[in-house]
Amino acid sequence: MDGTFCTTLPNFEQVFIIQPIVHGTCIPVMCALRPDGKAITYVYLFYILFATAKRCAGEMSKVKCRKQKK
């Protein structure tokens, strides 16, 4: 979701949110306040996202899910 608002925090023009739908529920997983709507700002945002995901991928592989007891 990407939106430009008439009223926003000083120095920010846009809010960028990634919200996947998981099992029928929309879950916000990332939110960024953007200073403008320029393409280069999107490029930089996704550069940071991909670099962080790559760095965290190793850590996430160590996470093990446990079944909840009923």
From TrEMBL:
Source organism, top-level taxon:
Eukaryota
The alphabetical list of record keywords is: Membrane, Transmembrane, Transmembrane helix
List where the protein spans the membrane. Answer: 39-57
Q: What is this protein called?
A: Uncharacterized protein
Source species: Rotaria magnacalcarata
